[in-house]
TrEMBL record:
Gene3D superfamilies: Tetracycline Repressor, domain 2. This is TetR/AcrR family transcriptional regulator. The keyword DNA-binding applies. The keyword Ligase does not apply. It comes from the Bacteria. Keywords: DNA-binding. It comes from Streptomyces polychromogenes. Residues 15-73 form the HTH tetR-type domain. Pfam families: TetR_N. Residues 36-55 bind DNA.
Length: 215
């Protein structure tokens, strides 16, 4: 049976509208977590009916953003670390690879407890938590990181620090491309400050070169 004329363009337009709505939601909810769906529709350049056709309510929109964040974090956690890296370089690479994802979805932090629930946020963050715990465990075993806390507990502390720094970016109190947070992460894990700066600078240069080659 032949496909009705216009059906493919309509589907393409629907995908484009959905992507534009989600991109606008990331931006607008980052500025104001109380932004309404009607305001998001206007900011997205679509009519209210179009937005509600994709997302029947606020919960559906936030869940779509959560799904995006989960996929992006999982990809970053899987690709951001080389197995042969020394632990301090692995942690720096992990932090740098996670920062763009965290920066992109930082508005979820403001909405997490109220709208998504911490259980859902925990599901989103699980791949990153598993990966960083393994890095910290290896670093402790190699004598690179402090060993006064279990790896998972140290990871929770580093995560909390990263969340706090993301929130400072969200309020405009801090400007960071991820390198300052990566340095702070290494220092908190037990790497001397001077060495932390050197490691992060080296890893950031490698990450930038790889991105340029892939782009």
């Amino acid at each position: 049976m032949s496909q009705p004329v216009g059906r493919v363009p309509q589907r393409r337009n629907a995908r484009s509208n959905r992507a534009r709505i989600l991109a606008t939601a990331r931006q607008e909810l980052g500025r104001n977590p109380d932004t309404t769906l009607e305001e998001l529709a206007r900011a997205s350049g679509v009519v209210r009916r179009t937005l509600f056709g994709h997302f029947p309510g606020r919960a559906a929109l936030l869940e779509a953003l959560a799904e995006e964040a989960a996929e992006a974090l999982q990809a970053a956690a899987a690709a951001g670390v080389e197995a042969t890296d020394p632990a301090e370089r692995a942690l720096a690479r992990f932090s740098l690879s996670m920062w763009p994802v965290g920066d992109r979805y930082r508005m979820l932090l403001a909405l997490a407890q109220r709208d998504l629930g911490m259980e859902r946020v925990g599901e989103i963050l699980k791949p990153a938590r598993v990966r960083v715990t393994a890095i910290l465990e290896r670093g402790q075993r190699d004598g690179v990181f402090h060993s006064h806390l279990p790896p998972a507990v140290m990871g929770a502390g580093l995560e909390a620090m990263t969340v706090a720094l993301l929130e400072e970016v969200n309020t405009g109190a801090l400007e960071d491309d991820g390198t300052r947070t990566a340095v702070a992460t290494l220092i908190a894990a037990g790497v001397p400050e001077k060495q932390a700066h050197v490691v992060v600078d080296e890893v950031a240069a490698v990450v930038a070169a790889q991105a340029l080659a892939e782009g």
